[in-house]
Amino acid sequence: MNRRGETVGENSAGLRTAEGFDALRAVRKIVPSLLFGICGYFAGLAELPFGARPFGVALLAASGRESILVYLGLLIGTFASVELDGALVYFCVYTALMLVRIFTRLFVELRSVGREGLGAQRIFSVLLCERVGTRVIISASFGVALGIAMLIGGGLLYYDLFGLFVIALSAPLSTFLICGYTARASFTSRGELFSLWRDVGFLVASGIAVYGARESVVYGVSVPVAAIVIFTFAVTRARGVGYGAMLGLILGLCYSPMLAPLFVISALCAGVLMRFSATLACFAAFFASCAWAFYVEGMSALLGVFGGILSGCLIYSVLDRIIFVDLAKGNDASKREGQTKKELRCKCKVLPESILDGVRLYESNVRASALSDGLYRLSLFVDEMKNEKTASFECEEKCDEKYNNSFENDFDSVDYGALSRLLSKSMESSDSEYTADKLLSERLCSALTSLELDITGVLVYGVRKRIIYIKAKSKNKLTENTNAIIDAIAPLLPFSVDGEAFDVRRDGGEDGGALLLFERKKNSASVVRRRVAAKDERVCGDSVTVFKNRDDRFFAVISDGMGSGKPASVASRICSGFLSNMLSVGGLSKELIVMLNSFLCGRLRSGGLECSATLDILELDLMSGQSALYKCGAAPSYVYRGGRLFKLRSGSMPIGILREVDIKKFELKLSRGDVVVMVSDGVTGESGECPWLFDLLVQNLPSRGLERTADLIVKYASMRGSVDDISVVLVRVE
After folding, report:
1. Which residues neighbour 47 within 8 Å (Cβ) at sequence distance 6 or greater?
2. What domains, with CATH codes, occur in the chain?
3. What integer pLDDT is reported at residue 238 of this predicted model?
4. What is d(CA 310, CA 221) in angstroms, rounded to the nearest whole number?
């Protein structure tokens, strides 16, 4: 027992450990700090063209609490490679940079949050942790100062002036990149971009060290070659052959471009054979690397790198056994006493795929309920219209009052014939959205277990829109800690989570619950719409509807009832209302328009009501970016992209006239900034040829924006004597 009552033992690796002390974690904290000091030493040796040495300033500005070791390493490297006068200049710059960082942190950044309540120990712990932008600014300032000092000391020569430019550009850029690895605590964002920045920062810092150590030889052994071999093996074992090969290639290019494939070969050998034996992997990598070196530059290259390759393989084989085998075993033995409590704690596991059957049933019920409820209400409304045999004008008033009131804020439906086919197609298309990603689910388990929220399981599923299903013993804890859960899993996800849209449901017992997190949509749309009644008409016969449904699909609909005024508005309002309700779930399909067509041709016509209308429908998938334009007798539409305008026109018939629906579908590949222009025939006229509209769009869309362009379209259509209803919808993809 030690003084605090903790059990102390000796593990199989001969390392004394106490309960709660993680030796492997301690090694992982100490070794990177020492490596930063070594990296600082070689950064002081690294010299770019025109005698520029920007990497010392960059590394010192970017490093965190390891800055002291980097500072000492820089001074040693600088005084070992630069004449005394020049070394004193570097000493002054590095020292001033450290002091400015400390001053900035204490009196600028911490002042905004107040440091009066911080003790001396607390203040020390928050030093050298500036924001990334602050570090980049400091690096740029001292990079320029160092360049000016070298320029003045060199006698104001062009050579030193060019060196000033090199330092001024490369120092802040290198600092920004290295901060991806060193300033992790300063970030509030998480995700795939953060992981990439972190990897790039590690590569830049390592590459600087290798570049500065190119000429370093100890007893005939090339230090950078040995270091690259060791790092390549270690990264290959930890993150796979792809990362190891990339690291070997980049560091090899920093050492010698001709010999860079040598280290890629080492990573490949390690990736293939490491699972069987680290010694066998080192043995194969040694002979393969030597063969490549001999092939490229003959015996001279072989003599130069032979010692480095051999030393790297031998050192790694020893470290592999000590660090990855014996130390891991020792830590496992030291944690056995405390393992009982951890086992009692609820662990997060990957949920079985059978859990998706309940999710699928829930979603199917919502979909079916929406369709059937809307169909029932629409049928009641039409039967009432037929029984009362209202005139067209009265029908319009009734449509305004009853149809809109019953459908505006609801789910919905349509006629019977193709309903079964629509439901069947809807279920088939959604099958892929219940495909589980077990590998990603496993990665999330450890992060969720560490939150101690009694989370019992997690499952990631979906293809088009990925969903994270998290199950816990307490629904209240899920509701109260949703943001903490998102922050914990965000760095592990290959996509972004929508933090504002989530669903907490009751699941598993009286208090149990499930949290559903949804992938953030990748696209959005800006919309401007205009609608003007025909001349001498009080009511516009066109109907314009724009909405986004619960599946993150955006729709814009223009329906133009045949004729104008109130009679035309009956058909157009029925069409747009029908579509907005039916498309509250899922995407648009031909079966849906077939049902609408049969509805207009059958039920309304049998009641003495003539209803036909054009349809112009834009569908944009906000998740995948795929889009389509559907036309039934509609006026031409336009797509504006990068100064060019494309016309989309179909010769299809309006719906409600023929038993067979006539629909034209255009598959679109819209990109950010593209604008889709939809208009009714009140703008283009019956012929559809409208050269003035073409010129108006090209001249005004890039400069005047959507609002002003829409107003101009309405204005010019009216000035040119349009006698029909005018509708305009402009949609820009964001």
Report:
1. 53
2. 214-340 (no CATH), 523-733 (3.60.40.10)
3. 74
4. 9
